[in-house]
Amino acid sequence: MHSNKEIRQGKTDYVVERNLGYSNEMMYNQCLLFYNIIFKTKKVKVGRGKNAKFIEERAYTPEESIDRRATDSLNYYKNIMKTKSKIKYRDYQNKIIIKGAEILLLHNFLYLTMEVRTGKTLTSLGIAKLMNKKNVLFVTKKKAISSIENDYIALNPDFDIVVINYESLHKLPKPGNYDLVILDEAHCMGAFPKPSKRAKQIFSLIKSNACSVILLSGTPTPESYSQMYHQVYGIGNNPFNEHVNFYKFSKKYVNVKQRKINGLFINDYNDGLQSIIDAMKPYTIAYSQKEAGFKVDTKEHTLYVKMKPITYQIANKLKKQLVVEGSEETILGDTPVKLMMKLHQIYSGTVKFESGKSTILDLSKAQFIHDNFADVKIGIFYKFKEELNALMQVYGKSNLTTDLSVFEDTDKSIALQIVSGREGISLRQAKALVYYNIDFSATSYWQSRDRMTTKERLNSDIYWLFSEGGIEDTIYKAVSKKKDYTVNHFKKDLLSL
To answer: Residue 7 above 50 pLDDT?
Structure first.
């Protein structure tokens, strides 16, 4: 008899493989029928006259391997049924699981573009379970690891899993023996025209394992359709395979433009064509919150905080003179980019000096959050690291955490950096989201604001904290219209600041 672990590891060939679309119960009943046929008995008369008697003997005498197969298979699926999954999939998720398995079986890769909170993680694990995968690698963001591991435990599937963040991929043994790789927040590999280090790592990983691939993202191409190429270029059976690099790909799929920057003409590849998405349709399942029945009424509130006089003095001096010199440190805004970044920091109460050191200038925003939300379990998004230090000074470690598991198990509020907290995590226990500061990215705006969203939540409150006379308000106007806040925006807004 082989253990379930041995079976998962491929150490036995004696278990009947799961039929696509069959539940554990269906497989058990099928194996039971197989078992009953193999071990069917018949009555045979032995002896003569008064000494005659009937005995039971096997109707068939198959090879030992057949007996073993029937026995191992029956016990295997019986044991699986004993431990029930705590997950009950929604109807639409079950349909996606079956359709996704069919696409994966046909093409060896699948792209699930399911919006936030529609359950793309659980759905991808359900596909792996249905297809009887044995060793799954799940690559995600660091803060999402614990959540995915909890989903895996709750689902209780019959496969082994390794959950790892993108930054730790180099720690994986090579070449590995994964038969399925799931890539969470796949859009993070979408840099172009040259592939990012992350995309190159994934390319090598897929090649070395020769495995199936599932990509996950609620926003697969948040800024440009051109972001799709390097997400899939390492997959053997992708629709752009004939193009050996992005530049070859761009000749067919990108409206390449030329821009003049500092007197030089450079190619702009941002205008990816709709044909990119059309080419991906056979490999893609898209599902929206609206289709899932989400009816969340999201209300955004803007709150203005009056900062300390010293904050405005430093900001005004920097705008006029482009430099603020102290006895030991210097704040320099000698280029539009640096000036934009420094004012963004200063107006929220922190600054990073030319030396590389950072400091807290003003606790007004942190104090405002504490005074107005102290009795409420909230999620707080900050941009700069010193803003977290400001929050910790005001709240204290006993009332505020940066650990998602602590947030879920206690009454503590949580503080997360926008870029790292905008993806792959759920803040469903939060009563509200409060933004200490705002990011320049439209992607950050749209992804982070949905962290509380669940199908059961009917109302969601988001609070934006802007300093009076600061830069945050102008950034908000851009990103809420799905436009990144750029230096060009800043130059136009500078006159009014």
So the answer is: no
